Every structure is written in C-alpha cells, then in structure tokens.
TrEMBL record:
Protein name as it appears in the record: Short-chain dehydrogenase/reductase tropE
A Pfam cross-reference name: adh_short
GO molecular function terms attached to this record: oxidoreductase activity
Signal sequence bounds: none
Organism: Lachnellula suecica
InterPro entries to which the protein is assigned, alphabetical: NAD(P)-bd_dom_sf, Sc_DH/Rdtase_CS, SDR_fam
Name of encoding gene: tropE_2
Keywords annotated in UniProt: NADP, Oxidoreductase
Family of this protein: Belongs to the short-chain dehydrogenases/reductases (SDR) family.
C-alpha cells in the first residue's frame, strides 16, 4: 500500500501559503500537510480556519523559522521521525520592507531580505533533500514561490512599474537562478519549479494586489 503524500508549505498561516494549503487540500484531501509557521499559535489558528472551511486533510503544524539552522534541523528531524519522508516542499515564506535613507539600514534590510528569501530557502531545501529523496513517490518536487518582479525582460521593457523595495525584486531574480542551479545539481529525481502566483491581495502587500490569493494558489 502506498503511503499518503506529504507536503510542507512555509509561511502557511496566511496569504499565499494559507491559500496553497486550502486549494491543494481541497483537491487532494488524502495528503498530509505540514503548515510551517514561525509560531505554533498562528499555525493552529490557520488549522482551525481551514477546518471551518471544510478541509478534512491531516494538517500538522510545524514551528519553523527558516532563518534559523537549529529550527530547520528540528523540523527535518520531526518529519524524519514521524513520517520518514517528504514528497513536496513549497518555499513560500518571504519578506519585503523598505529601508531608511541610511547606509546602515540599507545594508541591514538587503541582508535580511536576501537571507530570508534566498539563503534560507537554500538551507531549508538542502536540509530536507534527504527526506525528498527518501520518498517512495516518483514525483518529488520543490516549488519556489517567485514573483513577476523576477522577470528581467519585463523590467527592461518597462512592463513593470518601479518599486520601493528593490531588494525584494533582486531576491526573486536570485531565487529563479537558484531554482535552475539546484535542478542542475540534483542527484535524484526531485523536480524544481519557480512559480509566479501573480499580484495577490494579501497582508504582505497591504492588500493592494489584483488577484484573490486562492486564484494565485491555483
């Protein structure tokens, strides 16, 4: 008997991450979903909300700070001990914020954004790769949530408006490059994807987006 698929989604307590859990669980109710969140309370609140929407899938909350190696290793050990493998990793967690007109603040903001949106994704994916390779499934996947801001062609062609958070755009360009390079270096059967959910109405952008996050998740 084949074991149910397991999916880990970072930043799953709100916005795109929450909508990814909702949309996928509605389509694949037999899967097990790890809702990786910085706090257990926010994750549990998301689970309660999803159950109220009629989601019947197994929802397992993981306390995970993607910028912390110890937190990453603890999450990996929990999955290994409890389930033995992972089928799909969705790297959704990310940050963006403006910096003050000060070199120190500029440097700090760029370092924080790139650390969360690129370096930490690399670290988490690397730590979970053995669990992905241990999957009995023939379709292990790493899905990186990118952005339209990552399109260099659209930026050069003037199809994207200017942004006050340049570091975020830079991080998503880097994330796309990371996705390509990790696929090149893949020793097993894991497939890597960088996907753009579109400009969705979430707390992340002050609800200024044009799409419903559930549409973006689909």
């Amino acid at each position: 008997m084949t074991s149910p698929k397991t999916i880990l989604i970072t930043g799953a307590n709100r916005g795109i991450g929450y909508s990814i859990v909702q949309a996928t669980a509605q389509r694949y109710p037999s899967y097990t979903y790890f809702l990786a969140c910085r706090s257990l309370s926010s994750g549990q609140a998301a689970v309660t909300s999803l159950h109220a929407l009629g989601i019947t899938s197994k929802l397992d909350v993981l306390e995970l700070d993607v910028t912390s190696n110890s937190s990453i290793l603890a999450a990996a050990e929990y999955i290994k001990t409890t389930y033995g493998h992972l089928d799909i990793l969705v790297n959704n967690a990310g940050i963006a914020y403006t910096h003050k007109d000060d070199l120190n603040d500029l440097r700090e903001s760029y370092n924080n954004i790139l650390n969360t949106n690129v370096t930490s994704i690399t670290a988490l994916t690397s730590a979970l790769l053995p669990l992905l390779h241990a999957s009995p499934s023939a379709s292990q996947k790493v899905i990186n949530i990118s952005s339209g801001r990552a399109s260099l062609q659209n930026s050069v062609n003037g199809n994207l408006p200017s942004t006050s958070v340049i570091a975020y755009s830079v991080s998503k360009v880097a994330l796309n490059a990371l996705t390509i390079e990790m696929q090149k270096g893949e020793k097993g059967a894991v497939e890597y994807f960088a996907v753009n959910p579109g400009h969705c109405k979430t707390e992340f952008n002050g609800f200024r987006g044009e799409k419903d996050p559930l549409d973006g998740a689909e």
